[in-house]
Amino acid sequence: MLYTGNMETFFTFLERRVDDCASLLCIGLDPHVSDIPFPTAAAARDFCLRLVKATAPYAAAFKPNAAFFEVFGAEGWDALKQVIEAVAEESARLGSTIPVILDAKRGDIASTAEAYAKSAFENLGVHAITLSPYLGKDSIDPFLAYKEKGVFLLCKTSNPGAGDLQDLLVKPQTSEVLKTSEVYAPLYIHVAKLAQRWNSGDNIGLVVGATQPEALRRVRAAAPELWFLVPGVGAQGGDLAAALRSGLR
Amino acid sequence: MLYTGNMETFFTFLERRVDDCASLLCIGLDPHVSDIPFPTAAAARDFCLRLVKATAPYAAAFKPNAAFFEVFGAEGWDALKQVIEAVAEESARLGSTIPVILDAKRGDIASTAEAYAKSAFENLGVHAITLSPYLGKDSIDPFLAYKEKGVFLLCKTSNPGAGDLQDLLVKPQTSEVLKTSEVYAPLYIHVAKLAQRWNSGDNIGLVVGATQPEALRRVRAAAPELWFLVPGVGAQGGDLAAALRSGLR
Fold first, then answer.
1. Collapsing DSSP states into helix, strand and coil, what is residue A18?
2. Which of A57, A114, A207, B233 could form a disulfide with B238 if both were Cys (CB 3.0 to 4.6 A apart)?
3. What residues does B229 pair with on adjacent strands?
């Protein structure tokens, strides 16, 4: 059955939440083993539940990191589900739904990508997910098929090894969308332009690290309309004001 | 504590198994919902247990796909663990340990990558994992730190969208290792050369699709020493003889 109603996209939903809470803050839910009293799924869950409760009024979104739950196996998976449900409960209490972005960085094809999408969007019930672009458009499509959900593609990350692939200069493309005045453009700029082109359903954003404002500025120029998920402010050394100056639409 | 004994690397282990079973066949454990009688974790597990039992004597390795278990949440995670344990039991029965490669295509950094590595190598107990290279060397290092385990980096995949990034022509690098006689080389060749350079611990292989023998040949030339994991023979249309001609060391 084709849904033809006035469906809200993820980014319209996110904008409403941003208005409601007057904040652009995405709060990571990263229960590192070193930050919890016991290395158990229950301790990871309780750490996140406390954080959700304390910060919900200020959260434009929550971003649980799949790895820190997956490391506890089946119990971790249940804990992740409980954390996501807790965000829904706080949302109901506040009268404003807070989006949940699963930080999973999945990247696979065909029926495998469909299974990852079903896992995130149907079983866990998150509103958006982070994905790797290395396998190309058809690895993203099974996620985009959920038209009310969102994806954030890895574009330019803030780790030292990001340059191994992301900064490589790629030959200018002949297609209209990708042509550029630069002789060569870094791979991450190419990814930004691809994402801008693929965003016909208003459901693609980009992950761009906060630690390099100049890269943020270049990605913003390449993808003027897209939402950015910008990790790295604080502990990783990113400067909030500089990131906002470079990255805001 | 630094382990200084005569540790066996993953690839030495794999070679021994290849000798024992006189086969290079890696058997995928992909319990698609469409292939199982009920969409449950138990049905996915039983499908894989039957496959493991029927094919163990001929398997150089088994490759369970994380997505088809993750889609069943906590129960799926338990099912995956049981399937991996079943391979260990068949190995004991045969008197020859069969490697298990977790097809998870993870790609993240720092403590997140450490958690994914711990999940795969310690909790699930697999011998190797597939990873995405988009975030660079430091996203691979937490896995390489397990010196007796292996990683297979995505290099050239067989899906239609592979070309969106992997085939992009990259400007020649000035470093000795990466320089090339070609004016431009595709990104996947760059990845192959990086993997060859990073393989100082004999624990890195490459994922190269079977459907494009010419790409296989080029990757083999760029990374003469690495093991390839070559999906795509059979249903996806890859020709076994052509893949072997192009990919064998």
1. helix
2. B233
3. B207
pLDDT lower than 50: segments of chain A: 1-2, 4
Residues A92 and A111 in one domain: no
How far is it, in rounded angstroms, from Cα B23 to Cα B99?
13
Q: Are B27 and B55 in contact (CB under 8 A)?
A: yes
pLDDT given for residue B236 in this prediction: 77
Residue B156 and residue B168: Cα distance in Å, rounded? 12
For residue A160, the domain's CATH number is 3.20.20.70
Q: Which residues of B touch A132 (CB under 8 A)?
A: 105, 107, 132, 134-135
**Window 123-152 of B, Cβ < 8 Å to A:** 123-124, 132-140
Residues A49-99: tens digit of each pLDDT: 999 999 999 999 999 999 999 999 999 999 999 999 999 999 999 999 999
Residue A112 and residue A47 share a domain:
no
Q: Closest CB to A161: pick one of B73, B81, B136.
A: B136
Same domain, A90 and A171: no
Tell me the residue range of the domain where A34 lies: 8-99
Mean pLDDT of chain B: 93
